[in-house]
Amino acid sequence: MENNWFMIAGLFGLLVFVFFLFFFIKFGSLWLQARASGCPVGVVEFVGMFLRKLNSRLIIDVLVMAHKAGVPVSITKLQAHVLARGNVTATVRALIAADRANIALTFERAAAIDLAGRDVLDAVRTSVHPKVIDCPSQESGKPTVDAVAANGIQLRCKARVTVRTNIERLVGGATEETVIARVGEGIVSGIGQAESHKTVLANPRKISQEVLDAGLDAGTAYEIVSIDIADIDVGENIGAVLMANQAEAEKRRAQAEAEAQRARAVARGQEMEALGKENQAKVILAEAEIPRAIAGAFNSGNLGIMDYYNLRNIQADTDMRKSLSNEEDDGNDGATS
Question: Domain of 281?
Fold first, then answer.
């Protein structure tokens, strides 16, 4: 019986020896590194990292870096961030940079920013050292922001916007594209409200100040520090072009109206000509009824032979008078010529 206990104790001791031998072979250098750096890590933590298939060297290096920088971070939070597929190195470096710049930033906030897909280290750097972005951006393909003053003169502007990252609004806040779009809109609005382009040329700072006072950074991940008009040029006389286009349109409308009136006059003339021919046809038809009426009068006894001859004499006399009148008119025309 005693031999069995000795065998069990020996086997257990052998297992413990093998375990510690494996531990020192696998994690000995990391364990010594953490203890020597003043942030000791227990054996259980190393076993947990091994079972979770975590990069223990990465976690220990980050833990030591944070401890040496005076930013206390628990190893449990580091493991959780690695398991969430976060960039633990950039997150801790951002915490260190924020601590040096006296920026209130917790590990939870930095981890949330990192997991949201933002570069948390670049955000902290931008918060300390504001960066300058061009308006319009080079990606937009437009070299200038074009706006028209009240007098119709176009101005072409280039602006530079100095922004600082707002850590509190970094998650869920709008990006640089929104800031650029709002600044461009503000410049167009400011120039459009100016009475003359000369006013803007004389004091472009007034436009940039109006844009800055409009609070365009609301709801964005940045805080606008300043807006500067880098370049401003005079473009086309848009007002004159619009007036010329309007005059051309009015001319075309008047021409179309005159053409319509001419077409109506031609149609009316053709209508009157057709009406005249129709009346002539009615006269011819009426004249054709005269012999029939005379014949009817003879048959009914209302017209005698002498009456008929008198009527023919009157017609002959009338024809002679017309013939003489036409000869006199022809003679007068010849003498005049």
Answer: 277-312
